[in-house]
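Checked the freezer inventory, then went back to the computational side. Two predictions to log before the end of the day. The first one is the construct we discussed on Monday; recording sequence and tokens without edits.
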Amino acid sequence: MDDSDFLRYSRQLMLEEINYQGQHQLQRAHVLIVGLGGLGSPAALYLAAAGVGTLSLADDDRLDLTNLSRQILYRTADIGQSKAKRASAHLHQLNPQITIRVINNRLTEENLAKVVKDVDLVLDCSDNLPTRYHINSACISAQKTLISGSAIGFNGQLLVIEPPYRYGCYACLYPNQKIAPNNCRTAGVLGPVVGVIGTLQALEAIKILAGLPSALSGKLGLFNGKKNSWRHLQLNRSTHCAVCGVIKQPGEK
């Protein structure tokens, strides 16, 4: 860490929970962000600013005018361009010291496994159920930590799943993969709501990467933007889960 690094990260280095060791761990870390929309925008900005060494940015979409009310990583001049490429350019302007890998194609069940195995942690900032299930399966198979966020209307959800998945996984929480789709295009969303969830995804990622425990591990956080309130539910692992049910827990025979 040189003098420039000390200045750039000085305020978080002052935190005894982070200090030099935690910052060093952040700089060595590799995080995959799937989806660079309303959730991925603030998450990517904060992870880049915090000095996470390598960010893999996955999104096959192009920026649309309707995105700008909540996807704060972009500018009007970016309309029509690749989100992943424009995100990379903006994040490099924010912190040129980090490495950014652009994944400009859709991550499928087949290619997710290859991408996930090379990272330390995954942020699911996607906006559709099939992708969420595929990300969950890939993380379980590779024994990676998953931080999943979602938002619709005035409401948001935040979920932290860590090995050995004592409290289950996304498929335990939502076993029905045929739920009718409900997304921003069909139901709308308020920008600051996705901002809250995306920012907290980054917060939990930074804590975990720096060696701190996540208070949300194995819990589902439910945010009500109208009341500005939170509820937290403890997850329970399903022994019948086809994704994580086969993983033996400590003490199990």
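The second is the one RB wanted added to the comparison set:
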Amino acid sequence: MPDPGTLTEVANDRPGPALNAAMAETSEAVSARLSELLPEVDAPEGRVAAAMRYSALAGGKRLRPFLVVRSAALFNVSPHAALTVAAALEMIHTYSLIHDDLPAMDDDDLRRGRPTCHRQFDEATAILAGDGLLTRAFEVLADPVSHADPSVRCELVRELAEAAGAHGMVGGQMVDLMVERGIGSPEIDVAGITRMHQMKTGRLILFAGIAGPIMGKASSRMRASLHAYARDLGLAFQIADDVLDETGSAQDLGKTPGKDAAAGKSTFVTLLGLEEARSRAKLLSDQAVAHLDVFGPEADLLRAVARFVVERDR
């Protein structure tokens, strides 16, 4: 993959061909790195390795890896190191999708346009594939190939563990299940659903935004700017996802639409209405863009991503 810093920049902060090309190039490079880090195994345990590869190499937007690569490029981080960290993050994201699709959770049959892992293999294999991806991600981050400085590697491990754990993604998923199943206090308002999704979806996106400045040993000011950018971007992404779940098709989304509404789950759309949800997502996108002023035109692709997440149709 060419140095991400040499990719043609967008002329403004709108999504367009330059962003599409950059995202496609990064997606291809991340998939290649994932394939290297998750090799085929010719042994009895090869079945779980095959399930890990099946889900991790299924494609998708690769938004989180793109944010890692682009934020790292701002600080002249080695492209290979950035791709390695991006791949580790995508392993965590993929493990969460595998488990999220299980019958005990969302019970879904379609993911990224293909049968979900437990449908392609079986439930036990899917659980183990998720476990394998989770642990492999931290093995990758701890390896010197992710960064020469052990203190940086330790910080990446700690930040990703916090983002993925009980006070981040896992905790947000627990709150979501409690609300859906009426465990404890099932009622949830806009503030409650905002907090839930900042944990469930936003924390991994937040990690993606700060991985670059961590690797680049950036100043506290620049790190804070990317932290704020990724925080607002993550929430805008989730609100837009709720809108798409209401308006999209299975062909466009690559997953089953309308399941949240059918299950009676609270979403930003059910709480705010469709138009207000769209308006709030755009406001958050605008805020995310404003946080990047310190970086000038070098961050144009990140600005375009903030527009992309609320204007996409899948």
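For RB: The mean pLDDT is 90. The longest strand covers residues 110-111. Let me know if you want it refolded.
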